[in-house]
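Lab meeting notes turned into a lecture example. A postdoc, R.K., suggested we walk through two folding results consecutively so the class can see how the record format repeats. The first protein's sequence and structure tokens come next.
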Amino acid sequence: MQIDIRRFYLRHTRLIGIHNASKSYLKEVINFMVSRGGVKPFISKVASIKDAPALHELMESRGVVGKVVMLHEWD
């Protein structure tokens, strides 16, 4: 697998790989990292679910980096 390392450098990200790991081992590692706070999503926008059409346009235009969270206002 070839990777353009510049994309990682410019985004200040890390790439961690495991050679020949089983699916169960990868699940165990991910669960461990999540439980220790080692995996944190980058939330770029939080908005009302009423703004869903605009948020979808934003995501489709690639105008967002990270996750978009839509909140529902329960009556």
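The second example is placed directly after the first for contrast:
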Amino acid sequence: MVIGKVSKAFGSFSVLNDVSLEIKKGEFFSLLGPSGCGKTTLLRIIAGFETPDEGAVLFDGADVLPFPPNKRQANTVFQNYALFPHLTVFENVAFPLRIKKRPRQEVNTRVGEYLRLVQLEAHSEKKPSQLSGGQKQRVAIARALINEPKVLLLDEPLSALDAKLRGQLLIELDQLHDKVGITFIYVTHDQQEALSVSDRIAVMNAGDVLQVGTPHEIYESPAGEFVAKFIGETNLFDGKVLSSVRLPLANNETEYMVELAIDGLGTIKVTTVDEFSPGQTVSFTIRPEKILISTEKPATRREDINQFQGVVDEPVYSGFQTKFYVKTASGVLLRVMKQHAVYSDEGPDIVWKDNVFLSWSANDGYIVGLKNEAGS
């Protein structure tokens, strides 16, 4: 599927700005961004429920914009399920086949197959009011899939469910995608959902696509400050380039060791594949889980390790991990995550007001990009 230079405005408000994407056949592709970023509008344009002001939507090279939703070989699963309350689970799933006047035996066979696929064969005679939220969502998915579309569009399908059920259904949805093998386009504002199931993600904000990449690329190599802050948690600073030294690597590749001056932290080192010049101002990010925290000074003498001291300003215990807010002597606050991999019957080994040492490798930080004169 190709989305080519799609723009859409409602009155004077621009919702999509010249958006272009290429989505591979069979891919689990997520549109991720905050409320109002344009992701649902883009999904509705793909489905045929909205018409763009400009652009094209191509399925297998053919523009589908002239066709109504039922002619596009794309079915949509909505957030509110959109089930028929007076019909049983069986008849809700069978409805698309009934509309096409398929033979009774074919309807019975195929509905049975799809109910087994979503693990609802034991609930076929129930009405939607007798189902849980997760079961209703499975019915909606089965009904959307029974037409055997080329593309399944999912508009925040899990947002109405509680967190634990959402996590369970997310795994089931990923497994279902593997079984049916068609293209899934998934709209969500939940970063963890997108990172968990997507082959690739398009991060959107204010009608623009800011970055397209795998979950690993989006998380580890964000294309800008918004992506760095929106995907997970991070520590983000402005830094001035002091020096940049070329580090030749194998296979004729090149890396640079860059020294940055960051207010409140001093000099830090970071490796990058991009070349920067002394005097340039950049955005630097370091993820909380990349920072090591200890009450004892690290023994390492490696030159690529950044080390700082601070005081635990606030520890937030979450069972499997603790998030520490650590304040340096100059007042800079760093977020640090520590995983609890070993059982402790004496409680956390680092507590409020402890003096601690923080360290991270130059390879674990990342320069997000240059700052312009306006500071953005």
